[in-house]
UniProtKB/TrEMBL annotation:
<feature type="region of interest" description="Disordered">
    <location>
        <begin position="1"/>
        <end position="38"/>
    </location>
</feature>
<dbReference type="GO" id="GO:0016491">
    <property type="term" value="F:oxidoreductase activity"/>
</dbReference>
<feature type="domain" description="TauD/TfdA-like">
    <location>
        <begin position="91"/>
        <end position="342"/>
    </location>
</feature>
<dbReference type="InterPro" id="IPR003819">
    <property type="entry name" value="TauD/TfdA-like"/>
</dbReference>
<dbReference type="InterPro" id="IPR050411">
    <property type="entry name" value="AlphaKG_dependent_hydroxylases"/>
</dbReference>
<dbReference type="Pfam" id="PF02668">
    <property type="entry name" value="TauD"/>
</dbReference>
<feature type="compositionally biased region" description="Basic and acidic residues">
    <location>
        <begin position="11"/>
        <end position="28"/>
    </location>
</feature>
<keyword id="KW-0560">Oxidoreductase</keyword>
<protein>
    <recommendedName>
        <fullName>TauD/TfdA-like domain-containing protein</fullName>
    </recommendedName>
</protein>
<dbReference type="InterPro" id="IPR042098">
    <property type="entry name" value="TauD-like_sf"/>
</dbReference>
């Protein structure tokens, strides 16, 4: 028997190939749209986190504008933390006191888990602070939104710089991720509960941040292609690109405690540019290839573009929303540069699906003395130091 081959699918979705694959599969088995939903999955989910981009008409619906009094309070909290002489891993509500703003941030945190799933805090005067002070401010404010910070590499970094590193880090092999290029990032989720992004600078052109409701995407698939709900809820082979083991398996879709949760990165299933999908691991199936494209194109259809301004902090629920980014162009004067935190609010958090529990435990297990806050951009590293 000939070895199974990876379907004709790449990191950047091809709508023509997607439609052809769908037509071919339906011609082979016309009963697919009549398949029963897997046990435990509803015909439809609702709630404020289930929305379409066209429903949001004014950014005042999701932007909270910091006033001068609140900015002064943030400045005092910075001075307070620096006066403690503690490492940055100890930044928390009790070491970065915001007595007035804290109530607003608590309400906004509820919006992430119980509301629409996103908000933007506008705007931190980033040019007034050093990079180190900005990181303290960013982590301090964010500690009121998510009490736990997740590590983003194997070396304890809880903060990551998202910018084009293809020139500055060309000497390092393994950029391998659209986040560190000017390329378009297709729809995906990050690991963990919440994502925060602080804009130190925006691009000269492009780079729009896009978000989409996972519940809305699910409802469409459940209504029209319930067979693909089953496909998404069964284990998939996720490439570890030379890690040990060479790949892991888990579902991309979960229904937990009334919430639809989608967790996936397309890159782990298709590879990206020079980071090819490993040849010695199981390929995805034709059904999985169709489901993967369907996730992207439906997320794109129902997405909302956020107007990211310099100094904004964007917070999104990465369990309930998918996100993407347009390609962009930098200039000498304007180079897109975001700083990312992965957060979790232990009081408000959704229940973690069982297959994700080991990942979440590893993510949020980094103690305050182990947390790294890289001041300058770096490519994410494995525990042994390799990129």
């Amino acid at each position: 028997m000939a070895p199974l081959e990876q379907p004709d699918i790449s990191y950047h979705p091809d709508e023509k190939k997607f439609k052809e694959r769908t037509a071919r599969r339906l011609a082979e088995d016309p009963s697919l749209p009549q398949a029963p939903l897997p046990a435990g999955f509803p015909a439809k989910v609702g709630g404020p986190i289930v929305w379409e981009g066209k429903e949001w008409r004014d950014e005042k619906q999701w932007v909270y504008q910091l006033n001068p009094t609140e900015l002064e309070e943030i400045d005092r909290a910075l001075s307070h933390f620096k006066g403690l002489g503690k490492p940055m891993g100890y930044i928390a509500e009790d070491t970065f006191p915001l007595p007035a703003l804290s109530a607003t941030l608590e309400k906004l945190a509820h919006e992430l888990y119980s509301g629409r799933g996103f908000f933007v805090l506008r705007t931190i005067p980033v040019d007034q602070y050093s990079k180190a002070d900005l990181m303290i401010i960013y982590a301090g404010i964010s500690s009121y939104v998510g009490s736990a910070r997740g590590k983003q590499d194997g070396a304890g970094a809880v903060l990551a710089h998202i910018k084009d590193l293809t020139v500055s880090h060309a000497h390092e092999k393994g950029v391998g991720n659209a986040a560190y290029t000017t390329d378009k990032q297709v729809f995906h989720t990050d690991t963990g509960d919440l994502i925060a992004l602080l804009a130190l600078e925006t691009a000269a052109e492009g780079g729009v941040s896009r978000i989409s409701s996972g519940g809305r995407v699910y409802n469409e698939i459940a209504a029209n292609r319930p067979d693909l709900v089953r496909t998404l809820s069964e284990p998939w082979p996720l490439d570890s690109f030379g890690g040990d083991p060479g790949y892991t398996t888990r579902p991309l879709l979960y229904h937990e405690d009334g919430h639809i949760i989608i967790q996936y990165s397309r890159r782990l299933l298709t590879g990206y540019k020079e980071q090819k999908r490993s040849a010695n691991i199981p390929p995805v199936t034709e059904a999985q290839a169709e489901a993967l494209d369907m996730l992207h194109f439906l997320a794109e259809k129902y997405s909302l573009g956020l107007n990211f301004q310099k100094g904004d902090i964007q917070y999104i629920n990465s369990m309930g929303l998918l996100h993407a980014r347009d390609a962009f162009r930098d200039s000498d004067e304007k180079r897109r540069h975001l700083i990312r935190l992965w957060l979790r609010n232990d009081k408000l958090a959704w229940k973690t699906p069982k297959p994700l529990e080991p990942i979440w435990t590893r993510l949020y297990s980094v103690g305050p003395d182990e947390q790294r806050f890289p001041i300058e951009p770096e490519i994410r590293r494995k525990a042994g130091g390799a990129t």
